[in-house]
Design goal:
Elements lengths: L3 E6 L3 H11 L6 E7 L3 H10 L5 E2 L2 H5 L6 E4 L5 H11 L3 E4 L7 H12 L6 E3 L7 H11 L6 E8 L6 H4 L21 H11 L4 E8 L8 E9 L5 E7 L7 E7 L2 E6 L3 E7 L3 H7 L2 H8 L4 H4 E7 L6 H16 L10 H17 L3 E2 L4 H17 L5
Parallel strand pairs: 1-2, 1-4, 2-3, 4-5, 5-6, 7-10
Antiparallel strand pairs: 7-11, 8-9, 8-15, 9-10, 11-12, 12-13, 13-14
Helix pairs in contact: 4-5, 5-13, 6-8, 8-13
Length: 386
């Protein structure tokens, strides 16, 4: 296969972005095969921008047209698993947008079916995994640069969204249409990176605010606390009402600390001796020097790494990698089966909030779905967005 013919399902913000990249020849070994959208206005837009590209208003028709080798799902979250399965059933490669779905039960169905089609490429659009900063951070942790993790803290509140953002579409910021708020729309990349780099927590306890500062039914403020199997703890904070925003990720290990600021700079502080050894052997005289800030250079050394992110480069890198896997088997940066991990973490945070108690991972998937359906029914009987 010389070029992968990509079928874009949904010509909205993301679908339009990918169509532009492909039309401009920015993706290696990939072209637009077809475009699908149920909105008649998008048909006119497609005809204007991409007059030679077939357009469909039914994605099944597109899958069965012979015009596409692969699809990307730029649609509401609930539809990702269904569309992925329908593509794979027809021997068409599938690249699902994040999140892989709204709840783990449906994502597991997608993963299980994909496992029966190992000859097909199944990926998820975790473009932050192509970010050199986070690739470097994972390398540092995997190589034990700061030893065993003791604590993770990520405050990511750079998702400011005004009320008008939520009014753009009826499905947005609803339980029935989107399946949640900041956890399923803005923060899935961070939830994926957190578990990709530091591992999946074993227990979650959360304080979640629904419609806290916006007129929506779903969450716009989240504070979650984690326990890990090795005894480490973690905190994850996110929201959509902080116009000033903070993006700071700290990982503390027994041999040092790594701090990521604004997803642009990594500061690595490596202890000369592991903290446990310092605690066991250091004299109180030396301890006083630390308290007085007199011996920092004797305790640790510091390295600062700065990164520049070119807009759009990460998305292009995912598409490049996806095409390469189809053509020559290049390993996927983000296999589709990995999508369930971030969904599981988001579900656990929600479930802890719904129940008002600590939740163990894995949790009861049927219980989560029952609680989600309660939210959907409540929303139908008392809609926040009218």
């Amino acid at each position: 296969m010389r070029n992968v013919r990509m079928g874009i399902i949904g010509l909205g913000a993301e679908g339009g972005l990918y169509a532009g990249f492909l039309a401009d020849g920015k993706v290696n070994n990939m072209v637009i095969g077809a475009i699908c959208d149920i909105d008649p206005a998008k048909k006119a837009l497609s005809a204007e921008k991409y007059p030679d590209v077939p357009f469909y208003d039914n994605y099944i028709d597109m899958l069965e047209s012979g015009d596409v080798d692969a699809i990307v799902t730029c649609v509401p979250h609930y539809l990702h698993p269904e569309m992925g399965i329908n593509a794979l059933q027809r021997n068409i490669h599938a690249l699902v947008e994040k999140p892989a779905g709204v709840y783990t039960k449906q994502v597991k169905q997608l993963n299980d079916f994909a496992a029966t089609k190992p000859e097909l490429t199944f990926g998820i659009f975790f473009n932050q995994r192509t970010n050199p900063l986070y690739q470097k951070l994972k390398e540092l942790i995997d190589n034990g640069e700061i030893g065993e993790i003791r604590r993770t803290n990520w405050m990511i509140t750079t998702w400011w969204r005004p009320q008008g953002y939520y009014e753009q579409s009826a499905w947005r910021a609803t339980w029935d249409g989107e399946g949640g708020g900041v956890l399923v729309n803005q923060a899935p990349h961070q939830l994926d990176l957190l578990q990709w780099i530091c591992g999946m927590p074993s227990k979650v306890y959360s304080n979640v605010k629904y419609g806290y500062q916006r007129k929506i039914a779903v969450e716009d403020e989240v504070t979650a606390m984690f326990d890990y199997e090795n005894g480490a703890t973690g905190v994850f904070v996110t929201c959509t009402h902080d116009v000033l925003g903070t993006d700071r990720f700290e990982i503390l290990g027994d041999k040092g600390k790594i701090v990521v600021d604004d997803s642009k700079k990594i500061t690595i502080k490596r202890l000369v001796k592991p903290e446990s050894e310092m605690s066991a052997t250091m004299s109180m005289q030396d301890v006083m020097k630390i308290f007085m800030g007199q011996s920092a250079s004797e305790i640790y050394n510091e390295e600062v790494l700065e990164f520049e992110s070119v807009w759009g480069a990460q998305h292009i890198a995912v598409l490049d990698n996806f095409a390469a896997n189809i053509i020559d088997g290049t390993p996927l940066i983000a296999p589709g089966s990995d999508g369930i991990h971030g969904v599981r973490l988001a579900n656990a945070i929600h479930l802890s909030s719904f129940l008002g108690e600590k939740v163990e991972i894995p949790f009861d998937e049927e219980l989560y779905l029952a609680e989600l359906n309660k939210k959907i029914e409540e929303e139908k009987s008392n809609p926040v967005k009218v």
